[in-house]
Design a protein that fits this description.
It is built from 6 helices and 17 strands. The protein is α+β, with helices and mostly antiparallel strands. It has a domain of 140 residues. It holds the Pfam family GUB_WAK_bind.
Length: 315
Amino acid sequence: MTILLQSSTTLSQSNLCRSSCGNIPISYPFGIDDGCGSPYYRHMLICSDNNTKLELRTPSGKYPVKSISYSDPHLLVSDPFMWNCQDRDNFRPTRSFSIDSSTHFTVSLQNDYLFFNCNAEKVIVEPKPLFCERFPDRCDSSCDSSSYLCRHLPECGSALGSRVSCCSYYPKATQSLRLMLQNCATYTSVYWRSTGAGNAPYDQFPEYGIRVDYEFPVTMKCLLCQETTKGGGICGFDTRTQKFSCLCKQGNVTTYCKDPNLVKHKRVGAVAGTVTAVSAAGAIGVAGGVFWYLRKVKAKAPVTCGVQSNENRIF
């Protein structure tokens, strides 16, 4: 007796998931090939230019990714439209960076934004300590002209000159960032990077870029899938249903690569290309097959059902 298990249409197997883009490692929860990683971040990262350029896709555009941290979950991206030291007082047209609030990305609070040549009639440009002391209820609305970063621009020295004003302000929403840019010539973002010396916050130094934090979804299925003793699979998902899938060299499974239940099913004749059964579903499949086999013998008529599919499978 042979029991057929319908193969999944997920094409992504472990050998089809790229593990890097340029010099940036790619691992769970991210993937640059469809079906790899977590569905949370499907189509969010793009690897182009012959597998050398990694970009983050957002509503405001695509941005080069400088690095990804998995221990301290965040991406560091750059915005080519932002001001840099080479621009000096030659301000180019810019656009506001934004993240879709419905995704599992957030703009980090560790970013500092510097705005240049703001309209003093529309923007409160004041030394923040003095202004907050005088107007505590309006403290968050001021753009700090006494900012340390304005006086010590990273990598620039005295790049701005006397004709350019600078202030520091953290927009609490994309809309407030857009309003600031309507009344300021340009802006840039500075992220405080840790040196890893373990003496926070004194082990940090400023670096141009935008830190984007992300959620790291951890599930027992994924942990089992990645376990070396259980086959060392890659966590992924079915591209049709977006349900979890463990990507193995021999195909995709819903448990882990060395699941003994899958081996047992193969011994009784299960056809396994890309197997999508777990142990419970396999047991039901065997029982169902025996039931229809006996019915076939009794009725001496061909059986037209009893083959498992994704629709009637129990996960």
